[in-house]
Amino acid sequence: MKILIITFGSRGDVQPFVALGQGLKAIGHTVTICTSSSFQSFITDHGLNYGYASNDLMDLMDSVEGREAMETSRDVLGVVRTTIKLMNEAKSINQQLLTDSWATAQAADPDIVIFHPKALGGVSIAEKLNIPAVMVLPCPMIVPTAELPTIGFPNLNLGGWYNTFTYKLVQMGYQMYGAQVDKFRQDQLGLSKFPKSSGLLRLANGQPIPVLHCYSAHVAPRPRDWPAHVHITGYWFLDQAEEWEPSAELKAFLDAGEAPVYIGFGSMAGRQPGRLANIVVEALKKANLRGIIATGGGGLEVEQLPDTLLEIKAEPHEHLFPHVSAVVHHGGAGTTAAGLRAGKPTVICPFIGDQSFWGECVYELGVGPKPISQKKLSVDRLADALLTTTSNVTMREKAQALGAQIQHEKGIETAIAAIEAVLNQSGHPHQSITSASGYIKSI
C-alpha cells in the first residue's frame, strides 16, 4: 500500500509523522512525506520517501516577522494580530504548498492521505484521487467538546455552550483560507468548491474525517462527547535505535555531581535569545543548581559559563533526559512528551500555540509547577520554579508514575490499527498490522 503524508510547520509538526512512517514502512507499506524542503534529509535518513514542498513557510518562521510573532502571539488576540499581519505573505506561501502537495500526490499515487490540518489541500487531494483521508492533530484544538475550550481560549467556567463555541471560532479562522482552497480545487483538481456546510471535519460529501490525536490520554484525557471516529493514540516517539554515547565532555559533566537540570527552548526565542539565556543562567545560579543548556535550535545564546553549567547543541531527548533531575522547555508537544516519558518533573515556559496548554496539563497533573509565560519569565520566577521542581518529593513521584504509564503505551501501533480500520471501511486491500508488532516493541 502507498501512503502519502502531508504536513507543514516546525520540526514538531514533522517528527511524529516520520515515526508513524517508519512504523508503516516496517509492515511493508511505501510511505512518502510531503513537507518543507529543509526536512528532506531528515525524512530520507529515516528511510522514507520525500515529496518536495517549498521551504518558504520555514523561512517566514525564521524571519524577523516570524520571530516577532513568537513574542506577540501568546494569547488569542496576539494570534489574531499576527495572523492579519502575515496573512498576505502566507497566502502566496499556501498557494505554493497546495501546488507542491498535488504534484507530490500525483507522483506518489497513494491509497490513502494522512495530513496535518496545516496541509490545506489534504482533504481535496484525497477526494480527487477517490481515496480515504485521515487528519492528525498533535493537540486537542479542532474537534469540538463541551468539556473544555479549545487551546488559546480561557476557561471561563461558563458551561458547555461557551466551550463548544470556541471550536467554532477556530473553524471560522480556517475559513479565511476557503477561497484559496476553492481556487485550488477548481483550477488544479477540477473539483467544485468545497461546501461551506461541510466544515473543517467533514469531506465534501458530508462524511466525517477520521481524526488521530498523537498524544497520551494520560496527559490530556479523551472528552466523553467526542465521536467514535476521533481517537487518542498515545505519543508517536521517534527514538534512535542505536546505543547512545555522550561526548566525553557531557559524560564528565554528568559524572561530576548531582543530576543537572536540562533547559532548552529549541528554536523558540523571539528576537532576543541572548536575554533569555541570561535569565536561564542567573536563575540556575540563584537556585544553586547544575544545569545543561541546549542551544542547538538558536533559542538560547550563551557566552562563558561557570563550571556548574554546560552548553550542548543537541542530544537525543530519549537518551539524555533519564540522566537529568528535571526538564525546562518551551512546551512543544514532542519535548513535553519526552520529558514526561522519562518521568521527570517539568517546567514549561510557553511562547505560542499549544505550548500553554501542555504547561497547564503538566501543572494539573502535579508533575510540574504552574507554567511561566515567556512574557513573565524572570530570574526570580524561574529560580523559584526550579527549586520547587527539584525539591518536591510528591511532584517527583507523580512524574515517575506518569512516565511509567506513557512508557507502556503503543501509540504508533494504535495509530496504524486506526488507519487500517479506515482502509477496511473504504474497501482498499492492505497488509495486516500484525507483522508490525516486532518493530513497535523495539521503538
Protein model, in words:
The chain contains 17 helices and 12 strands. It is α/β, with parallel strands linked by helices. The protein has 2 domains: 2-235 and 409-442, Glycogen Phosphorylase B (Rossmann fold), CATH 3.40.50; 248-406, 3-Layer(aba) Sandwich (Rossmann fold), CATH 3.40.50. It has a 7-stranded parallel sheet, with helices on both faces. Strands 10-9-8-11-12 form a 5-stranded parallel sheet, sandwiched between helices. The longest helix has 33 residues, at 76-108. The relative contact order is 0.13.
Count of strand segments: 12
**Which CATH architecture of the largest domain would you pick?**
3-Layer(aba) Sandwich
Major sheet summary line = 7 strands, parallel
Instruction: Report the average pLDDT across residues.
Output: 87
Number of helices: 17
Order of helices and strands: EHEHEHHHEHEHHEEHEHEEHEHEHHHHH
Broad shape: globular
- As residue ranges, the low-confidence spans are 430-443
Cα distance spanning the termini: 22 Å
Computed Rg:
22 Å
- Strand line-up of the largest beta sheet: 3-2-1-4-5-6-7
CATH class of the largest domain: Alpha Beta
CATH topology of the largest domain: Rossmann fold
* Beta content: 5-15%
- Write the CATH homologous superfamily of the largest domain: Glycogen Phosphorylase B
**How does the helix and strand content classify structurally?**
alpha/beta
Q: In the residues, how many domains can be counted?
A: 2
Helix content: 40-55%
